[in-house]
Amino acid sequence: MTNLPVGIIVLIVVSVLIYLGAAHRVLDRLRLTDKAALAVLAALIVGSLIDIPFVLGNITFVLNVGGALVPIALAVYLTSRAGTSVEKIRPLVAALVVAAVVFGIGSFLMTGLPEPAGRYAFVDIIYLYPVVAAVIAYAVSRSRRGAWIAATLGVLLADTFHGALLASRGMAGLVSFGGAGVFDVVVLAGVLAVLLAEVVGEIRERLQGGPRAADRDPALVVNLKSPANDEGGRKNEE
User: Fold this and answer.
1) What is the mean pLDDT of the chain?
2) 47: in domain
3) 75 FRET partner, CA 20 to 30 A, in 23, 115, 193, 226?
C-alpha cells in the first residue's frame, strides 16, 4: 500500500470534518433537534459500513444502510411532517423529475463515443449528479425539507430505473443503492439541495423583508416567525 504524504492525509481529514459539519447543519435546518440531527448523522456514518445484497433475476442489488435506507427513512419522516397536501406532493413530483433527468444523463449523455465511458466522461458523476439533483430538487420543491426529499429519493429512483432497464434487456448487472454511504451521491445530493435552499431562501427573505406570508397557511406563517421554534435562527421553509 502506497504511503500518503502527511499533508494529503491532513487535507482528507479536514475535508471529511468540514463535510460532516455541513451535513449536521443541513439536518439541523430540517427542523430536527440537535440530538435527532446527531443521531441521524451517526446512523449515516455507521450505516455506511452495512450493505444488504439481494438478487432479482440476473441482477444483483446492494442496498447500503447509511447511503440509502437512512436517507429514505428521513425523507419519509419529513414527508409525514409536512403541513399540507401540497407540501407532501410537490417534493414527490420533484423526485420524479430528478430521477428522470439523472437517469437520462447516466443512460444517454454519459454514454457513447468517442470516450468508452461517454462523450462527457471528463465530468465525474460524483460531482455532476448531486449538483444536477440539488438544483432540480430545490427549483421544483421550493423548500428545505422538500429539497432533501426530492434530491435523495430522486437519485435512488434513478438507480431503480437503471435496474429496471437492465432487467428489461435481460442483462446481468450490479445496481448499488447508496454504496458509498455518507459520501454517496444520494447523501451528497440531499446535503447540496438543502444548502442551496438555505442560501437562496435567505437571499429571498432578505430581499422581501421576511418570510412570504401571502397565500400560505396562517399557522405556518406564525411558526416561521416564532423565535421559540428557531433556536437562534429563522427556520423558514422557503
Assistant:
1) 82
2) yes
3) 226
